[in-house]
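Class prep. Write one:
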Amino acid sequence: MFGSSYEIAVLIVSPTQVLYDGDLKPDPATTEEDKMEGNIKIESVEFSYPTKQDVTVLKGIKIDVKKNQIVALVGQSGCGKSSIIALIERFYDPTEGKLLY
């Protein structure tokens, strides 16, 4: 029991690898609804998992999803559907390209 809680504590306190820079800050005067645009844009994304950096999983992916648009990712097993979702959820960062929200 203590072993698993130790691993979780290490995960929580470990520093993030995502670098946040710039001086833009949220405007507290806007409502939550105003802040949430809801658009997702993926521009020329390339991605390799950290454990297999020699294997490029995604190559030049471009996706533009507008607010309230319904999208389905379909394809064969191993084509990168879960990798795209993992990038959107910020579990990983792209090797190249941009994800814009």
